[in-house]
Amino acid sequence: MRTPLLAANWKMNMGRQAAHDLVNGLLKETSEVKDREMAICPPFHLLADVEKLVAGHPHVYLGAQDLHWEDSGAYTGEVSAPMLLDVGCQMVIIGHSERRAMFGETDETCSKKVAAAISHKLIPILCVGESLEEREAGKTADVVTTQLRGALTGQQIEKGSQIVIAYEPIWAIGTGRTATPEMANETMQILRKTLEEIFSAEIAQEVRLLYGGSVKPTNIAEFMACSDIDGALVGGASLKVDSFAKIVQY
Ligand code: PGA
User: Which residues, judged by CB distance below 6 Å to any ligand atom, belong to the binding site of ligand 1?
Assistant: First the structure.
């Protein structure tokens, strides 16, 4: 059984007071929810604050939005896996399409980051997804399986719970446009089959696959009803107590 995971990607948003109010509000609104997990991924400067707020809530993970693959050294501006552990992180987003498009992230850098995360017992949330042109050219399966293989081939894991995959069609991120649940589930099945080929059937069945791209309180239930969708990675709608609490309570 895969426990549903609703992950909030705050991106480059929020200050300390707003983060405090949002996390406290969310914990209050979702205090009755027991059968699913949440992840909160704030920008680096808020990790220590959010860690204090979620301490004592074992169903809420703290996640970062990126990391560097080396443990330490002359890498100005970067943050490493041991640093994320030091501040209480359990998860880290890797290869978000915004980082691939704007900051030169490649399958090769994703692979190094996933390896660093796994070796430090951080759970990577590896993001994959196709552009609109790629979807329209019928290349979705090709693109996402290449991204998945590029980042995961050769990684050493024993259980599917050590990684999370987020499928986010780029054309659905922040646009208000979503993939249909059928479209998303079809891609998830392709990803799960690829995980089976990379790892094993057992591991592939354990890995949680999240859908991302304009997830809202009004569409979360139909995604969660799909056989191979185990949660969501939520951007815009994760910045307000009301909308993210409703998504968690789908
Ligand atoms: P969105 O972002 O929910 O604002 O579309 C999702 C994401 O980029 O992770």
Answer: 9, 168, 173-174, 212-215, 233-237
